[in-house]
Amino acid sequence: MPAPLRIAILASGRGSNFAALLAARERGELPVDFVLVASDKADAPVLRLAQSAGVPTTVLDPRQYAERRAYDVALFDRIGASKPDLLVLAGFMRIIDGDALKPWAGRMINIHPSLLPKYRGLHTHRRALKAGDLEHGASVHYVTAELDGGPVIAQITFPIEADDDENTLAARLLPMEHQLLPAVVELIAAGRLALSEEGIRLDGQILRKPLRWQDGQLAP
């Protein structure tokens, strides 16, 4: 039996997506070990969640660094010391320097609350409503130096209702993120999904479009 996938988490807030990954592991759905939770905020609730689960944590304050690049390199040095196979960004609210990302190419994923390539960056719910979109959702993608611009692995969608506002969209989307992210990590942990020079491969075949969550599973 292969060794469990070693995962490091990078988060700035409450850590609900990390909690979803922990729950999936406890259900026996994820053959993974969480080797580190790293944050840029000492008061981030995700750190308390990690500590209660027995997962090591580290915090690095960006205010101690004059330049973003110097901070990012130092942070990723700490993360690298835990020897993860995969780094999951789960609500990390900073843009990462491209040089710091290079050693992690194909080994870092992020969950983003929009149907990429729509609405990279912040305020995705507001922008979807302003545009008059009929549907909204979340995407899991590989991280590159381009903000929210890496290859999209999978998406989950739902219809926008006439009376929706930013808060209702966010509330409806969050539990869907908690389904989508563990499903993608499960594929990676099983060795079924990886990023190659030609693109994302699932079971050896190039994905021509993102996987979609439907009927409780990911499908092409």
TrEMBL record:
One biological process term in Gene Ontology: 'de novo' IMP biosynthetic process
EC number per UniProt: 2.1.2.2
GO-annotated molecular function: phosphoribosylglycinamide formyltransferase activity
Catalytic activity reported: N(1)-(5-phospho-beta-D-ribosyl)glycinamide + (6R)-10-formyltetrahydrofolate = N(2)-formyl-N(1)-(5-phospho-beta-D-ribosyl)glycinamide + (6S)-5,6,7,8-tetrahydrofolate + H(+)
Gene3D superfamilies found in the cross-reference section: Formyl transferase, N-terminal domain
InterPro entries: Formyl_transf_N, Formyl_transf_N_sf, GART, GART_AS
Residues that, per the record, bind N(1)-(5-phospho-beta-D-ribosyl)glycinamide: G15, S16, N17
Name of a matching Pfam family: Formyl_trans_N
Active site (record annotation): H112
Pathway where it operates: Purine metabolism; IMP biosynthesis via de novo pathway; N(2)-formyl-N(1)-(5-phospho-D-ribosyl)glycinamide from N(1)-(5-phospho-D-ribosyl)glycinamide (10-formyl THF route): step 1/1
Alphabetical UniProt keywords: Purine biosynthesis, Transferase
Domain Formyl transferase N-terminal positions: 6-185
GO cellular component: cytosol
Record's keyword annotation contains Transferase: yes
Class of enzymatic activity (EC top level): transferase
Known role: Catalyzes the transfer of a formyl group from 10-formyltetrahydrofolate to 5-phospho-ribosyl-glycinamide (GAR), producing 5-phospho-ribosyl-N-formylglycinamide (FGAR) and tetrahydrofolate.
Family under the similarity heading: Belongs to the GART family.
PANTHER family per record: PHOSPHORIBOSYLGLYCINAMIDE FORMYLTRANSFERASE
Entry protein name: Phosphoribosylglycinamide formyltransferase
Taxonomic lineage from the root: Bacteria, Pseudomonadati, Pseudomonadota, Gammaproteobacteria, Lysobacterales
Gene behind the chain: purN
